[in-house]
Amino acid sequence: MKNILIVDDEAEIVELLKVYLENHDFYVLEAYDGEKALSLLEKNRVDAMILDIMMPKMNGIELIKKIRRKSNIPVIFLSAKDEDIDKIYGLGLGADDYMTKPFNPLEVVARLKSLIRRIYHYNKDEGVMEKIHIGDLCLEEKNTQVYKKGEILDLTAMEYKLLQFLMKNSNRVFTKKQLYESIWEQNFIGDDNIIMVYISKLREKIEHDSKKPDYLKTIRGLGYRFEGNIQNEG
Fold first, then answer.
1. Rounded to two decimals, what is the model's pTM?
2. What is the pLDDT of residues 18-39, one digit of tens each?
3. Which UniProt keywords apply (predicted)?
4. CA 193 → CA 163, 196, 207, 215, distances in Å?
């Protein structure tokens, strides 16, 4: 699941886009000004942004300048300005696409999906990334292999599936129920031992010290989180 940050000072637009994006299996974060957006970017994994230009506190132009100093995250600009010079200026600042208001939300979703496929090197199988790099781990979805410091890890099918899910959704907390129903695709009946066993097995294989994990963290009272940011190749 990809995390999308919508930044717009018009609540109606944010809510409209949120409904459409969630219906297409995106996880949505919301900000109504540039300062809040920067704060969310620092605390969350964000895979792409939909960004308004005219906003209070920090406008979209100032925000994308700050973002581009640190990140190549995909950005779609939204603007009421429809002159070619405005589009050229926005794209020149580092936006990956530019749409004018009013817009068709389905077109926004379509452009976002296309952008994500291009940026994250999706192969012909929808939703499959070629490689996921986090720290010294590399998961290759094409051949279902995981490497640690270049050496292949011996994972069972379910260990691989669990690790794949966690790495693709890094920095998000999942309950045992959410993990079970996502990985095993069955209703959770309250027995959390199976999740604990698989988490323990994964830690033994991916961590430097399984008792002091760097990646697979237990969030007391909530569940588990895989910590680390997906690294862009090159």
1. 0.53
2. 999 999 999 999 999 999 999 9
3. DNA-binding, Phosphoprotein, Transcription, Transcription regulation, Two-component regulatory system
4. 17, 5, 20, 20
Say how many Å lie between the first and final Cα of the chain, rounded: 23
CA distances from 133 to 27, 45, 61, 182 (A): 21, 14, 30, 22
Residue-wise pLDDT for 1-13, tens only, equals: 889 999 999 999 9
Cα 95 to Cα 63: distance, rounded to the nearest angstrom:
11
CATH of the domain at 94: 3.40.50.2300
Domain end point (choices 87, 119, 151): 119
For residues 187-196, average pLDDT: 72
Residue 228 tokens read as: 């680390």
3-state secondary structure of 228: coil
Whose CA is closest to 207, among 168, 145, 163?
163
Secondary structure letter of residue 204 according to DSSP: H
| CB hemisphere CA count around 216 (13 angstroms) | 24
The 3-class SS string of 109-158 reads: HHHHHHHHHHHCCECCCCCCECEEEECCEEEECCCCEEEECCEECCCCHH
135 plus 85 within the same structural domain: no
Helix then strand then coil, in percent of the chain rounded to 5, is 40, 20, 40
The answer to whether residues 25 and 57 belong to one domain is yes
3-state secondary structure of 108: helix
Tokens representing residue 1 in the block? 């699941």
